[in-house]
Write a structure and sequence with these properties.
This protein has about 350 residues and is α+β, with helices and mostly antiparallel strands. It has one domain (about 5-285): Replication Fork Single-Stranded DNA Binding Protein. Helices cover about 25% and strands about 15% of the residues. It has helices at about 5-20, 100-105, 115-120, 155-165, 210-215, 230-245, 255, 320-335; strands spanning about 40-45, 60-70, 80-85, 120-135, 145-150, 180-185, 185-190, 190-195, 200. It starts with a helix and ends with a helix.
Length: about 350
């Protein structure tokens, strides 16, 4: 287990570098859906170390790109859906993401920033631990009480900044002298707000039952729950899907469904082997729910809650004609001599 000093050194090194350089598991209900908490409630979580001894941190970062489509090809009854794909930069910061390569120049044009935000990668962070106080009445805890948590950047910023506080003397994941974390849900500007979340002030030991569960079930290796790293074929499919999404086309399940597809849609029956189905590991991360006016995260394009229901609030996918005009304008500017 890494020490608090090692974590602080690693965070500081990452932040310094940033400022200077500018496998599939069976899905279950071990993901704790804190985004389903009622406004004004509080969940108390006790984070645990990563089961991977080579991970300095007690979390892993996820980088996901959301591709909205106007329904499914051949099915007029479907509404807008969202297909999520892993950003290759999650595995190698030097790798070339075909989607971000095209989106980055959009930020140079004020009229395209909204579109750029829509297709930019969304970060979230995977943790594990216990839910010690659960305000979600209908939550069904799994047999293994060690839950996984998909944490948004807003909450993660609070967690990380507190780790750099010199007044925190022990690792918050320490079994005997660790700290609980309180996830507090409020709202701000029509979106869910977790800015008042905080660490408990008093240290506490894991209970005998909690320690016994670790002995019985073991800790998760969090990297096992990251999507499969895309290869050349997956990257090609991602680029095709991205262009179709911007063009306002529906999702073509026969063409892409053996690689990526929205949760709830069956694989195509064209005989091709299923190449990448890792998002079924975390079903809430890709499920498209009815437009029931959910409370989004801090902004429509920065909603890292796995509910994936932000299709109500994200800017609507442009019509095919408008999208083609946008793409034509973008590519013309990219090819224009400097």
């Amino acid at each position: 287990m890494a020490s608090l000093a090692e974590i602080r050194a690693r965070i500081a090194a990452q932040e310094n570098k940033s400022s200077t350089s500018g496998s599939s598991q069976q899905s279950d209900n071990s993901i704790y859906p804190h985004w389903n908490m009622d406004e004004g409630t509080n969940a108390t979580i006790r984070f645990l170390p990563d089961g991977n001894p080579n991970n300095t941190f007690f979390w892993v970062e996820r980088q996901i790109i959301k591709l909205p489509f106007n329904g499914v090809k051949g099915d007029s009854s479907t509404k807008q859906i969202i297909v999520q794909v892993p950003c290759i930069e999650m595995y190698d910061a030097k790798a070339v993401c075909p989607i971000l390569t095209e989106v980055r120049p959009w930020y140079k044009d004020e009229s395209l920033k909204e579109m750029a935000n829509k297709y930019w990668k969304k970060r979230s962070y995977l943790f594990q631990g216990y839910v010690r106080q659960n305000p979600i009445g209908d939550d069904k805890a799994p047999v293994n009480p060690i839950r996984r948590f998909i944490i948004s950047p807003q909450i993660f910023t609070i967690i990380k900044s507190s780790l750099m506080d010199p007044e925190m003397e022990e690792m918050p994941t320490d079994y005997m002298r660790g700290l609980d974390f309180n996830v507090k849900k409020t709202s701000k500007g029509g979106y869910a707000d977790y800015s008042t979340s905080n660490w408990s002030r008093k240290e506490s030991a894991l209970t005998e039952a909690e320690q016994a569960a670790i002995e019985t079930h073991g800790l998760y290796n969090l990297t096992d729950f990251l999507p499969k790293k895309p290869g050349e074929a997956e990257l090609r499919i991602m680029k095709e899907m991205f262009e179709a999404s911007v063009d306002g086309q529906p999702f073509d399940n026969e063409r892409w469904g053996n690689y990526y597809r929205p949760y709830g849609l069956d694989a195509p029956t064209n005989g091709a082997a299923k190449a990448n189905d890792e998002f079924e590991t975390v079903k809430p991360a890709v499920q498209v729910r009815p437009a029931a006016a959910p409370v989004a995260e801090s902004a429509p394009w920065d909603n890292d809650e796995p509910a994936a229901a932000e299709s109500v609030k994200v800017p609507a996918t442009p019509s095919s004609d408008k999208a083609q005009d946008i793409l034509a304008m973008i590519r013309a500017r990219q090819n224009k001599p400097v």
